[in-house]
């Protein structure tokens, strides 16, 4: 009970010194690893971000974990993140394993109920997204896509052809809404 609020000045000094050094080391490693290391792309990236935060907290507050061990752990996590993203760009199977596909939830003003159910998205969430973009009705939406990071993208104008922004979206826009809903059931 005596160490509940204060153990020693040495403990405070260690936290300050190791904390500053660990933070500086983490920032340096993140800068070296590139912009993609902590992008908000998918669940895999979130896991790495949480692991980095947990490692930083452990290095800061656990006296039995030396700074060098923490920096090696940071380096390992960042290297693994870099390796997986590098592989996912070059090997299609790795990319499919790590990343989810964007999913079409509304097409040509109609809700795609099967897709919404599969992705656990409600009409109310889509309507809120439409309001954020200034749309007054679902009929004004050419498409609503649930992106890989969980955010909704809302397209006001329909896009078609080989250069359509919907070409990589699950739920092909070249099929009818009825076809797509029956395909998912």
UniProtKB/TrEMBL annotation:
Q: Looking at the Swiss-Prot or TrEMBL record, what is one Pfam family this protein matches?
A: YetF_N
- UniProt cross-references to InterPro entries, sorted A to Z: DUF421, UPF0702_alpha/beta_dom_sf, YetF_N
Membrane topology classification: Multi-pass membrane protein
Which positions fall inside the YetF C-terminal domain? 90-159
Residue stretches making up the YetF-like N-terminal transmembrane domain = 23-86
Major localization class: membrane
Location in the cell reads: Cell membrane
Mark the transmembrane ranges: 12-30, 42-61, 67-89
Per UniProt, which keywords does this protein have? Answer: Cell membrane, Membrane, Transmembrane, Transmembrane helix
Say which family it is in: Belongs to the UPF0702 family.
Designated name of the protein: DUF421 domain-containing protein
Instruction: Give the organism, scientific name.
Output: Hymenobacter saemangeumensis
